[in-house]
Amino acid sequence: MIGNSLLRLAEEAATESTTETPAAKVVEKVTEFDWNGLWAKLSELAVSAAWRIVLAFIALIAGKLIIRMIMRMMRKSKLIQKMEDGAEHFLLSFVKIALNILLILSIVGILGVPMSSMVAVLASVGAAIGLALQGALSNFAGGLMILIFHPFRLDDYIEVADNAGTVTDIGVFYTTLKTPDNKNVTVPNGTVMAQAITNFSAHDTRRLELSFTVAYGTDIEKVKAALLETAAAHELVLDDPAPFAKLKAHEDSALRFILRVWVKRGDYWTVNFDLMEQINNRFAADGITIPFPQVDVHMIPEKNKEEKEEKNK
């Protein structure tokens, strides 16, 4: 019995010694792995990636220089110089954006990104961006409409979307105005074309209308003569069309007269302020009164004391 038990234990020990454990298998596979081949592959990939990055950087620098050269050549071309300033700026901005997009795609290709995958990604991203940037696309379309229909040009004084100023820039997406108090207002082109535009620089001349009030009882012809003579004496007031002065309305406390004169566009505010002062002085010299608002109150006397007492009850 004892001999058989010892024999069985010896056989089990021999079996365990010949059976591999999981840890032993892992160690065996690790030692058998071709680490030199892996290192060589990683080194090759690293060198390739480094070269691609270097080439992409060189392409970026060269591309920027080429874009700058192309833009300089376009600015000097006779075709561009024949364009008006707004159209020239819009076209140059559009070309610059397109060239930069082309440069980015070229760099992505140099870095080894598959163009088919890139096109698919750009298509999906473009659709998402298109939905998110509907306003930007509207602004771009507005810029094209400004370029085609010319509702205004550079250096015109306009009023749009509750903003007034001189047009200093017509961009791909935005139009910039410089206000009289030296502030820049940037208005989206989509908003510009969706709003009513008042162009004060569309014509060489403008009509200036001033309004004055005088007291009731004043000689109407005397007032008209004072207005017309003062206007005719101003050197910046145009003779054709001739100045116009008429009684406009009977108001609660005064007679209202209007004076209309035509001036050159650049003289508008100078004539406006000059005539306001000169007509005020002429009225004072001619004894024409500018009235204050007044209200007449009429007191109705009570018939007798009994009626008053009756009302108090």
CATH first level of the largest domain: Mainly Alpha
Mean pLDDT: 81
Structural class: alpha+beta
Radius of gyration: 44 Å
Uncertain parts: none
Query: Per CATH, which architecture of the largest domain?
Result: Orthogonal Bundle
Q: Shape from CA axes? A: elongated
Count the helices. How many? 11
Percent of sequence in beta strands: 15-25%
Order of helices and strands: HHHHHHHEEEEHEEHEEHH
Largest sheet: 5 strands, antiparallel
The beta-strand count equals: 8
Give the termini distance in whole angstroms: 141 Å
CATH topology value of the largest domain: Helix Hairpins
Strand order of the largest sheet: 4-3-2-1-5
Number of domains: 3
* Helicity range: 55-70%
Would you kindly provide a written description of the structure presented here, covering whatever features stand out?
The chain is an alpha+beta fold. It folds into three domains: 41-132, Helix Hairpins; 137-199, Roll (SH3 type barrels), CATH 2.30.30.60; 205-286, Alpha-Beta Plaits (2-Layer Sandwich). It has eleven helices and eight strands. The protein has helices at 2-18, 22-32, 35-76, 78-82, 85-110, 115-132, 134-149, 189-194, 220-233, 268-286, 305-312; strands at 157-160, 163-170, 174-178, 184-188, 198-199, 205-214, 244-250, 255-264. Strands 4-3-2-1-5 form a five-stranded antiparallel beta sheet. It has a three-stranded antiparallel beta sheet with strand order 6-8-7, with helices on one face. A hairpin with a 4-residue loop joins strand 7 and strand 8. Helix 3 packs antiparallel against helix 5 and helix 9 packs across helix 10 (268-286). The model has no long low-confidence stretch (mean pLDDT 81).
